[in-house]
Amino acid sequence: MPTRRAHSKSRRGCTPCKTRHLKCNEARPVCSRCRDVDRECSYPTRTLARHQGADQQVSLSTGGLASSDSYGLALSITTSTGGTSAEVGDQGDIYTIRHIRLLDNFDSVVLSGADPAGQQQRKAYMEIALEFPFLLNQMLALSAAHMSVSNTTSGAADATEATFLQTRALEQFNRFQSTPRETTSEQQRIAVFLYSSLLSMHVLFDALASSESGEPDSLNYTN
């Protein structure tokens, strides 16, 4: 009986690829997978230190934490030669229990419906959003906007969260659009289409919420 070939793992792969159990080509400063989906690419501190020259110094500093949600730490690399710093990771890939609540609300409100077509739509959103942070953050932003008018106990906090997530998604989308690439994959085109659709819904939502007669909490976003 032939022996089973062991799966080779990349020990020096970037953190996002390791988290998603994907094979990483270990390109620096950005691996090919992270570059294709415009995802922040970072490597473990130990790996970074091993690849620094003898005349370079690696230092980690904690960035400002969001007041209530603690979105995470901002890591910076400072080299003694250049005297500049670059962010290794940003808050775009940090999510909390609060975001899980928003994602559940997005699923039950924005993508409501138990028919097979609705389930396929939900699956498409989730699969693509996991690869494109700007889409995931816009999904959460729209959900927070809805909860800002449907939840009387946390309306103000949800409204602030909606603005924060919408801005974060827009910044990520702009970076994605400005990244040079030879070709655009079908998945990338779908992600851009879904993001544009949700952003349009969010703009309409804000317009109705600011009008005296608008009732955005009763909107059905799938129509």
How would you concisely characterize the structure shown here?
It is built from 8 helices and 2 strands; from the N terminus they run αααββααααα.
Order of helices and strands: HHHEEHHHHH
Order of strands, widest sheet: 1-2
- Integer average pLDDT: 71
Quickly count the domains.
2
Backbone structural class: mainly alpha
Helix fraction, binned, reads 40-55%
Organism: Fusarium torreyae
Pfam families: Fungal_trans_2, Zn_clus
Domain Zn(2)-C6 fungal-type: 13-43
GO molecular function: DNA-binding transcription activator activity, RNA polymerase II-specific; zinc ion binding
Care to describe what's here?
The chain has 2 domains: 15-93, no CATH class; 97-218, no CATH class. It has a two-stranded antiparallel sheet. It has helices at residues 15-19, 32-36, 45-51, 97-110, 116-129, 133-150, 155-178, 186-210; strands at 75-78, 85-89. It has 223 residues and is mostly helical. Mean pLDDT is 71; it is low at 46-92 and 217-223. The radius of gyration is 20 Å and the shape is globular. InterPro entries: Fun_TF, Sterol_Uptake_Regulator, Zn2-C6_fun-type_DNA-bd_sf, Zn2Cys6_DnaBD. Residues 13-43 form the Zn(2)-C6 fungal-type domain. This is Zn(2)-C6 fungal-type domain-containing protein. GO terms for molecular function: DNA-binding transcription activator activity, RNA polymerase II-specific; zinc ion binding. Keywords: Nucleus.
